[in-house]
Write a structure and sequence with these properties.
The protein is mostly helical and about 110 residues long. It has a single domain, classed as Alpha-Beta Plaits (2-Layer Sandwich), CATH 3.30.70. It is about 30% helix and about 5% strand. The protein has a two-stranded antiparallel sheet with strand order 1-2. β1 and β2 form a beta hairpin. α2 crosses α3. It is globular and about 40 Å long. The relative contact order is 0.21. The structure holds iron/sulfur cluster (2 copies). One iron/sulfur cluster (SF4) binds next to α1.
């Protein structure tokens, strides 16, 4: 699922640089997420970085963009294949279990 930013955003600018997919940018009034670039951080991190950092918790799931983990992984590979491969390799090397990008059963 892609995420979205609600009008509760206070434009603190914390999330934009944390996004591995450059999916976040300033909109007309507050920050926004490009659903075609948001992978919920699958392929890069275990948790959505923007959600972890947002001080006002204004980044829910976009109900219009329900996607499976496999679809999100395919999107991540399409956007940044080398970065995803590197993230998977780092996770495997650390022995910390399946990377966020691993093909886990869909929820
Ligand atoms: S969930 Fe990850 S990929 Fe999606 S907008 Fe937030 S930081 Fe970017
Ligand atoms: S971290 Fe939250 S409040 Fe700050 S710009 Fe991003 S969405 Fe807005």
């Amino acid at each position: 699922m892609a995420l979205l930013i609600t009008d509760e955003c206070i434009n603190c600018d914390v999330c934009e640089s944390a996004c591995p997919n450059q999916a976040i940018s300033m909109g007309p009034e507050f920050y926004r997420i490009d659903p075609d670039r948001c992978t919920e951080c699958i392929g890069h991190f275990d948790e959505p970085q923007c959600v972890m950092l947002c001080p006002v918790a204004c980044i829910p799931v976009n109900p219009e963009r329900i996607e499976t983990r496999e679809q999100l992984m395919a999107k991540a590979l399409r956007l940044q294949p080398q970065a995803v491969v590197d993230a998977c390799a780092a996770t495997a090397a650390s022995g910390s279990g399946a990377p966020a990008s691993a093909a886990a059963p869909s929820a």
